[in-house]
Model the fold of this input.
Amino acid sequence: MKKFRSIVGVLLFILVVVIGISYIQISLRKASAPPAPSRTPSLDLAPVRLYGLVEPLDREVFVGPQQARRVERIFVKEGQKVSAGQVLCELEKEVESQALEVAISRVTESEVRLSLILDELKRVMPLSGEGLAGQPALQVAVQRVRELEGRLDLVLDVLNRKKPLYQTGAIAEQEYTQNLLEANLIRKQIVTATSQAVIEYSQKSLEAELLRRQIETARAEVDLRKSELDALTLRSPIEGSLYKFDVRMGEQLNPQDYQRIVIGKPEKQVRLFVETFWFDKVRVGDIFQVQDADTMGAIGSGEVIAVSEYVGSRDFRSEDTFERLDTKYAQAILQMKDAVSVPIGKLVLCVRANNHTEQERPN
Done:
């Protein structure tokens, strides 16, 4: 009996040793074997997760001055609704106001001068004489010519009466010659006065035309000064919400400060940045659930209304640990629906809700 137990014990020990050696060999064989190839994940079944930035529908509008000026008056408050053309604030415009007054005074002065000249040109009379019959001239100049013509008629009448007396020797030759020279002088004065009348009328006409053009130039300057003056009154170019109005009284506002006044529509959209491997997976009509990228809280949903056809880099970083800086992105516009109040510029995470495969996607 004792011998039997010894044999059974030896057999059990041998069995345990064999099983242990076999287990070790199997374990080593499994450990040294290469890993089984993994299955390639399908993009059609993977959830589409995209980051984007919230912005007003159809993008925001920035308002800024054309030149540096100090803020003098403010008419609106941040967050209120504004209409197209509504005045937001006024900048310092003393220099431009004075320039406008000077331009207006030039127009007024030229218009008064033109009115006087046109009044003179209304009082015209035709000239008489060979080659100038019917030629218009200023009334004063024509009267001067006619006065000389009257004097000439008197002198000629005297000559006609003295000529027989001169021929008979009743009067001295010097007296007759003096009247003859006087008549010749008056004829030359008439020619000179007639030419002067024509020239004066032409000069007045040319001066009137010059003044008309000067008035047009002065009015153009007035329009320019008004435009410069109006440019110092900042107005809303669209109807929407005043999302940002970081302006204070007496503060210097520069052209580089255009991002301090932001206006946009009350409706929101999300500018999605689509990675290259999602190019053919994101299409117009896709529905996405929008979440806060920081808290993962639900914000709302939206529908893709446009997908760009160009790629570029992204100008912000997310919390994604697998994000790479050299990744190229396309852009898509997601119009938000039933969204809670969310500030513009907020980083959000959008997950596609209608995760169709290519076979299930409707045409």
Summary: The longest strand covers residues 298-307.
